[in-house]
Records
---
Amino acid sequence: MEQTILNYINQQSENISWDDLDSFTVNAISLKVNRSKQEVQKILFKLNKQGDIIKINTHPLTYVSRLSLENKYKTSISENVYETVDELLKDISSNNSDTSFQELIGYNGSLKSCINQCIAAIQYPGNGLPILLMGSSGTGKSYIAKLIYDYGHSIGRIKGNFIPVNCSEYSNNPELFLTNVFGYKKGSYTGADKDNQGILHYANDGVLFLDEVHGLPPECQEKIFQFMDGGSYHMVGDNVKWYKSNVQIIMATTENPNQVLLKTLLRRIPLIVQIPDLNDRPLQERRELIHYLFAKEEKHIGKNIQLSRMVYHVLQATIFTGNIGEVKNIIKTAVANGLLKSQKDGTINIHIYDLPQKFYNKGINILDDKVMLSVKQLLNKREENHNYYQFHYDIINHLKNNKHSFLNETEKQYVYGKTKIYIDFLFYDFKQDEMYQNNINIDFITQVLKIIENKYHLKHFTNNEIEIICKLITFSADILTLNKKSIDNEAVVTCYRKLLDYFLIDEKIIDDFYELIKDTVLIENVNIFKLDLSLLFVYFLKDLNDLTTASVIIAHGYSIASEMANNVNHLLERHVFDSIDMPLDCDFKDILDKLSKYLDGLSKKRNDVIVLVDMGSLENVYQYLSSYPFNIGIIDNVTTKLCLEVGTKLIQNESILNVLKQASSQNISHYTLIEKKKKQEIILTICETGLGMADVIADLVKQSLPKKTGILIIPYDYQSLVSEGKRQPLFHSYHVCFILGTTNPNIDGIPFLSIFEIMDKKNVNYIKELMKNYFSAQEVSRFCNELLKNFTIENLKNYLNVISPQKVIDDIQEFVKNIQEELDIQLNSNLTCCLYIHLACMIERILLHEEINRFDELDTFIKSNQDFFKKIKKSFTGIEKAYNIQIPDQEIAYLHEYIYSKYEESDESNDEMLSDLFYK
């Protein structure tokens, strides 16, 4: 009921009439919600105390919405209670003296100081102060000049007109500038047959805006500063009579005024306002600009606009040298392209390929171009679409849904991949985001990390890693304070606990770090900060966290194993040994259960495990450990000396057999080695653009395989392979048969198979050789065909709105097969894929009765290519029957041009065609 009442007051207040407030009384509200006055009065009291509504002590009492009024008048309301309506309106008015500027994006942000300077100049007694707006082209200087005029007009300071003059037009014609601005007398020059007033006359009591003022020749600049001295001037041809004009002068330049303006003019401009470049303004303001420009286009064309998340991301992230003007032109172009494709639709969809070509290769996940956002969502969805929130939603959902006590290698790589994206955001995007002002001293964090490093024997953090941690702290302090309600705190705690277990992170490291910084920086949501910090530590220490061989000490006594592990880890200056304590009253089954849980947690994370035991029944534990997918070594008579020797060799990456042999020979110990089962065979799929595209490739491969095999298809991060190679733990846990993808990572000893070569059936013998243990030659050929087909279906989803890609592809496939036989040509996969898309779009276009562009001299063309038309019409028979359509001659003519123009191109250009489809 509380929300119902609040919604009603909010809605009524949006269109409030101050002369009629009857609908805001207790009686009116109680009738509307069908509740007693007493119940409504109680809820209104609570809402007023919370600040959601404002009470006016009229008779009867009146309640209005704070949110609606602040939005309506673009101001803030300071009190919760007012005695009269006039007091409330006075408060609104006093906080709203500069409403003219509130439509300006950045008014309360990056442009706040600029606006304050302009307001001060306008309010200066007399004719105000001259203003010089300085900034790069496209930063909005002309727009701000007009807003200055609007503000002066609204406060009664300016009563005349706003007259702009583009000074660059007069750079080579100073005489024209002087006559236009100052006016001229009859006879002052040939053709001056009457007196003519200049711009200064018509700008009296108004604003003269001299845009591109650096374009004025020196003699013109001199005339301007002479006028500025006293507001008087001579008309051209009259050096006797003085004319007056009360004008507010605003100038604008893209150049350094010290280099392009006369010193005498510059001295008469007390106020120079620097307008920042768009790239130097906060990310949120860039978002607001994108929203504003698309909303403006919606209004202009009279249609709703949707843009893909990729387009939105690229527009935010790109550095625009042309500033706001360039963004405006790009958005207009994108809307025009979208409008061209969907003239009959009520909604225009803007995809990445509607932007200029330079935006195509931004390395964004292909899936982002399928997720569409309405213009209204661009600002409302800020938290959902922000890298920060998307990162947490992905990580939390991923960890929350895992029911096991461990993460397999693919899941680990997912966490690493997502964390890498977050790190890139902190390191690169966050540099330009000025909305976060709580900067952290990097020297302080460096000292904190040194304490942590020494205490827990961690590796030395690099300068880049320290900078990233600093930015995380800064980011957390600002964002988490503002948006803590957006985070599911219970899920965060659960995921944090799982992360510590999965990656063997000591919780004390995270706790100690937070304790050392908490008095320096305020972080309200501590749990999510700890989750973030632990993820960074997991990523930075990933090469050291995962030794090839894990080791655990088991000993009788309440804390003997744990104390021995702690002491040896301290001496080795890193975490090598885990421990399982065996109280004297604990039976063998309990210890076996603990060890089994420990080994389950390591499954697919380590290649080998060494179990160090003391004596008695533990020596026979090997009899119960034969089912694990790694080598397990058991060595008895554990001592500190034995642990040091084992740990040293493990750090040196000695094989488990060498470690066991050498350690037992140098101590009074015996060992048993339980060899692991055969490694699982896998095929890795990769793509330079990231894991998202690698996932798509993996799905396409799975769909295309001619039969089931025991091989796993695992998507993997390309950059991790390139940088780490076989050092990645995955190569210890699995047998990698080969790598399939878009670009060869050049991993020594691991074959690479290009997905483009598969679809184009290039190097067929090489493909068959790689797959001979799993498929016959015929099955390999079928696999290549199916992969091309499924890849095309995936791409068709971006183009078709009515017909099913799965249905149409079979019909088109038969048609393409027929025309190759009829025309005696062999199309490669690149052209085949593009032809599939062309034909599918053609069929849908005909079904929807959309017009086709007229083919020039069609009759002549048909006569010249009669054999082609005859064969194509024959091949089209099946499609025409299946869809009850008739293929027009224009379409066949265009098809002829398409096939033969592409068929004659080189293989290299064809490869680029398919590659472009793949990376969209």
---
Amino acid sequence: MSKRSDSIGRQKSRVSRRVVIIAVSGVLLAQPIAGLLPGNGASFIVSQAEAANAAPVLKLKQSQIITAGAKRMDYVWHTTRSNKAVKTDVHVIEVDLTNPHVTLNAMSGRNNSVGQRNNILNMTKESGAVAGINGDVFVMANEGAPLGAQVTSGSLMVSPSKLNGMYAFAMTTDRKPMIDAFTFSGTVTAENGQTFAIEGLNQSTYTPEIAGVTYSHVDNLFIYTSAWGGAERPRNSATKPTEVLVRNGIVEQISENEQIAGAVPADGYILRGHGKAAAFIKANIQVGQAVTSDYTLVSQTTKQPVDTSTLQMLVGGHTLLVDNGAASSFSRDIQGVSGSSFTSRTGIGYSKDGTKVYMITSERSGSNTGLSLRELQQIMVQLGVHKGVNMDGGGSTTMTERPLGTTNLQLAHPTQESSQRSVSNGIGVFTTAPQGTVRGMSVYGSNIMLLGQTAKYAVSAYDTYYNPITVDPTTLTWTSSAAVGKFEQNAFTASKIGKTTFTAKSGNVEAKYEVEVIGQDQIASMKINTSAGMLSPGSSVSVPITVKLKNGKTYNLTGDSLKWEFVGFEGTYQNGAITVNSVDGKSTTGYAVGSYDGYGAMIPFVKGEEAVVVEDFEVSRYGITSQVTPADTTKGGVKLISDLPDQTSRGLQISYDFSAGTGTRASYAVFGTNGVTLAGSPTSMTMDVFSDNSKNWVRAEVVDASGKTHLLDVAKELNWDGWKNVKIDVGSAGIAFPAKLKRIYVVTIDQNSDKKAPSGAIAIDNIVLRTAATVKEPARSSIVMNIGNTNASVNGKGIKLEAAPLIQQGSTYVPLRFVSEAMGAEVLYDDKTRKVTVLRGSQMIEMTIGKKDYMLNGVRYTSDVAPFTRNGRTLIPVRLFSEKLGFKVGYDEKAKKVTIE
């Protein structure tokens, strides 16, 4: 029994009072998963009825120690659904309870409170844990107190709700894990001896699974301690409270039909009654009298009270999944947590001998397909779980970890939603180990380098107990196994192509790291992901670069790694963009050619600008839908309107209501399924924005051709009233076009929230791209030459050649410079590398004297023939050269005549 005759406060523990907020796919939610996912969530859920009974298998991919007694293990779950092979990543933190230096504890809310949700990463950081997972389900419309019980460091923080078949995970102070269902029993005894049942402790409003009962707090008595962090006790209760403040066992204050102001003191508690409970208070309790409150958890297995001081921790969950090492019957209906659908999942269980705890999450993001609850059962069984329970899933599923040797906590895998969900509580892994001596180190930094690049490297170190320990950088020595560059302290400058192994050493401990300096011979293609720039002084364009190696690996580079040459204009490269400084007088087309170790890529620059209307909302071409985040507290909508002040055409309104939540909140307009195409190589995007002067923020989400998401500022602050045309710089944003405009949204953050309007509406209209004009092909010429003859004609006009065409080994060769210039092309020649570069319109071909490899628009190809020089003149294989640039080559063998058109 937990008796509180003097005070009800939180027991002090080694765990700092920080909270994690966990999202519920929850019980009591009409559409628990769909309401939590981006959009309507439907695309994230697949009916389990489609699943086939294949032979599923769980395969270990990798493992990593987190701390002494805890390691993270990454698996891939392979199965078949509807005769189609699918897979999803599964992550497990395995905790060895025989190791005295590791323990588990509950984490909740903010500063270890109840009724103030937080995300798991914050909770892990604030509590001092080294890893964690999300915990209990909760009602998302309320404060978010867990629906199950919670015990932190032996102190009962929350009582279980009256819901059937809800199980919880616990660990005793003697390190024994258990999973059981619990109920709550409590009694208040007035000074006159009269008693009344306590319904619960620190609970949000919920709907009990009792016939005829809709609201948990009607006619009932609840107790709230200083652990409660909610602004109300509680919100949405459909009742007016009568409250009693008890301090040191004596009634200090009674308030009828309204809440006592302020938070609950640490040395007291508040009795909160309504209806019959309020009548009991009025009849039996007075200020100055003594009151005793007793309450306890009751095990549904033993039917006996549980002394919570014998529990290290307890966190409620949902249905039982595994019992006695086999999949169990579900202890409650799983529809409320979309149990038959495939989504992100969280579960926890322990081994038969009770020495191992398995904290499990699965992903529904990227190519990962998520799990049904029956699949989670199978995974638990394959892991060796003896008894396991389901925790909250979907957007709530979160795992955090501290990578070996570091002090930085991070997400162990992506969450299902675009941002972390704030949840009620979680389960943390804590280390109690003392500081040891250095046991190992890891080197971190880039493992791919480019010629001329300087990169800095560092080490993270861990001690005897696999906890981070600082290594004095002055004690480190750095060496490279191959002479591909030089170290200066921890900075390495690459000067030669090749592979090497770096060794970092401090005392007797060393770490090795494989690094490769790549050269042009390893490149299969190099592409500038922008089609064209504007040939006008001052214009800038981003030049994101993608390099694909012959081994199939792809890397995104910046232009810093390239040597730049400008044709037709003077330009500079800086911070990912090329800027035109001045234009040669007669140039109508210019070129920026970037070269890495002799391997080139090109972007043309043209005069003129085109304004392309992306969307004016006059014609409905696709569905525009609303989306909000977090889904549990934010409201919003979209609609087409035409009645705003000074509005002359139809526009798109985005409404928002951020008043119910905290943290980052957003209301989105989602443009169809795939977004709106942004083509060409735009330098800017403009749109008309109707501002409500709310001081909120407007952004646009663009996904580029490489799949990278860019968040562009439309308006950093809505600080005007009415319409305004705004300009967004996309030319220097590093966007690879063509791209997709996916969403435009209003967003707010907590900073300076008192100066921002919590609700309102904006509008947008006339989204226009400003892009470089289309690269035009130079005028074509008709060229006639004869083998062995230096006389030729261009468009019927006779010309004398410096070198005659010839046939060698069955291939026809023609003089490079004559043919190129007659075609309207620019020719560049590098004496040192003997590389020939021909630029024409939007095309570039590179050939090297004597080599059969050639590069067309940045892609490497191999020919049967190679260019060569004779008498100081370069001759090229005419058919390869001309046809790759789109010309038609003809040959009259009788007349030995070559024509190019």
---
Amino acid sequence: MNESYNSSKAQLRFHPMALAVALTIVGTATSHAAELATTPAADAPVQQIEVTGIRASKQKSLEKKRHADGVTEVISAEDVGKMPDKNVADALQKLPGVVTTAGSGGGNGYDENDRVSMRGTSPSLALTTINGHSVATADWDPSDMLSNGGASRSVSFLLLPSEIVSQVIVHKSAQADQLEGGVSGAIDILTRRPLEFKKPFTAEIGLQGVYSDLSGKTNPQLNALFNWKNETGNAGVMLQVFDQKRQIRRDSQQMTWGVISPTSAAGKANGGQLAGAYYASGITQQLFQQERHRSGAVVDAEFKVNNDLTLNLNGFHSKLKAEYLMNNFVVRPGNSIAGGVVPTNVTLANGVLTNARFDNTGNATGAQIETYSNPSAASQTNFLNGDFKYRASENLRFTGQVGKTKADSDAYLYANYAFLPNTSTGYSYSGAGSPLQLSLPNGVNAANLTASPGNSGADDSYALQHSADKESYGNVDGEYRFEDSWLSAIKAGVRHSDHERAGTRPLKGGPAVNAANNGATAITTLPGYGGTVYPGDFGNNLGGLGTGGLPLLTSDQVVSWSNANLPTNPSYNLPVSGVFKVKEKVDSGYLMARFEGEHWRGDVGLRLVRTKVSVTTNTGVPCGVPSATNGITYGSPAQASACAAFVPAGATLTTGSRFGNFYTMTTDSSYTNKLPSANLALDVREDVVVRLSAAKVMSRPDYSALGATFSGFAYNVANPVPSTATGGNPKLAPVVAKNYNAGVEWYFKPRSLLSAQLFYIDFESLIGSGTSTQVLLNTAIPASLGGPALVPTVVNSPVSTKGVSKGIELGYEQPVWGSFGVQANYSYVDAKEANGLPMLGSSKNAYTAGAYFENDQFSARLVYSYRSASRNGLFGLSQSYSAATGTLAASVNYIVNDKLTLTFEGLNLNNPKLRVYNAASATIPFENSSAFYSSGRQFYLGLRYKF
């Protein structure tokens, strides 16, 4: 390979093969077009053929792409359910330069795509809109709701079923009239509008049953569409509803690695044979079971008041109920080693303990059962949008939108820990590519379950979490079109939005406060065990995990026990960390000129954006801790008095929580961005388009980067800056980059395309890990040094860094022999941060290959999508990666008559296994797996009926 990146010169060197492919397309296409130009035109009349189904969708998509000014990809869906995908992300992953993940920051290994990223960047850097306006988003996973988790700006596509789609337009180059927020690109989902339908009345219904082979359960799915427009075609109403339920089971194994200390009993035994050996310090066999129930509707009313004015009102609601039960059976060889156990039956290979048995006794906890039940997990989103189109004169037009969008999510997470002390455990290791084989030499006796945690710690609890995301917006655009001029139009517009995102934790119930109100009572009971065990085929898709029939607690057992034993008391059970609120007021305006000649077109413009940010977070303070000796009790005046000196001006103190006292403070900031852009499309031949584009683009920081709770305060006078802490960065600058594109598209036959796109994204500001200096109240400064005091503090926090993402995207599609067709694309991405590490979520290689068959009665489609390894971020002291993975999907449609069609779809047909691993580090100097996931296959059988 000949790719390199020099941060000082920002050089771009593409692989010679990539440039050769692009030049070959231009040369071959030009030659082919020249041949066509010398062919005499036929005098016979042209036969008009109506193309439907898969071919119609492809034709419509290519026409939209071909005539665009900028670099775009287009997906069209002609009928309800015609897209061979279950949500919009499933369809997007088939486009060049687009990859998907099955979870946000807190989830992985699920069976449905959730997030979309473009061109080697994180999902947060790709903007998603619906009909050109913002859409609020929310996540069902508790770890994605708060600032100390995965609270991001990326949209959850779990809430967006594919049936709502008319078209999806992916903008890879920016224009001044597009909403800012997408550095890598923008995804605009267009829904249907009533006056677009051909008939006065349209009614369609789709019914399916979905079978998930790992859960062994079947569930119903429904979508229906009703559209009416009057005879004159100037008023119409559309209603679309969906109700889709399915069962998920995910089997996984997760593990951690450690080093046997030379001073431990294991390290000293047998002449120090195991001293310094690397071993699996923790092993978790995880069974995740969930019911997902997605329901909602799209409603649209459109009125063509006269030939000059059209009004439209569009509403959308989607709710995902996602209750789940997660059972962990955990063994901790690390606790065994710390408890003095010397492993037996050991095998060492290259310094790695590949086989061992731990006969746990004394204070060494042998095994642990962890149960996490979330019966109220849910997320939802909705919007109400009004827009207008007005033709003031033959040349002057105005458009506008006004609306609100809101999303929220809830979690009521019950956590319970039961222990199996003195249980013998063991494992064998055959390499990083395979799960560990766990053994329980003497079996497991659930009668020995105890609430005593040994030396592993526990926190039986139930936690209520809530996330809310909302925005109100309005914009007006005007365009003046010129006649008989190379300057075809001038366009200008203004937009205002008020955005707010918040993550709250109203309570985390746990052990009751004692009678003296200065401590907690002990928990000595357990939920009743009813004999339930793991499925007999648990882990089979992962190659077998060595255990079966492990004991587990059910959701009902844990919930009923928690409600009876863990009182609420909100003030006592009020958590400190992860709570945040981010408010943003954004004003923007733009001016853009469109140009057009006989064989070229383009635009140039400038967008100006002003963002005012307000970030509210909590910070814990080490004061007023209740005890039997200091007379301080929870929520007492004495507790508030003891903490008064720890609260900076403008902050609000909260006391009385078992998690500690804290203050809440708001930080304000603002920034202005000038975003120029230019696009040029050259029709070098009738069937060849060459594109060039350049733009400055921006995305705002993730909420977790802005609002993470400050903690870990320390003060060491020996350091150049004595004051240190960990937390967010409420004044973090936005992500800013320069986005360049150059490409060629050859439309060599009807519904056919061969294309190549080169891209280069130069990040002037990219969010990375580092340190920032912030003026904070350091509560760790001793009184003898004037503490606590407001001082400059070096914070381990997200910071602005630099980086480059560059690559090439190749695309090909064509009808071939008879009724067959093929489609394929490939993308190569070299995306690196300034420190040389790959950008988060970046896959160097990705491709999709598919084929379809379609005649008047039958159609079938088969698609395989692949992405190479991608970086997840830090896991402990090591960089974590998701290994290469691919998925196979298929769809079959049989037209019984002009009203009834039978359908079949299969997802994840290759039964993919996801592996997560850690790169070699100073702590563990070899690649080691940290998790394996499998969610099985899904089969959909159903029908579509047109009334």
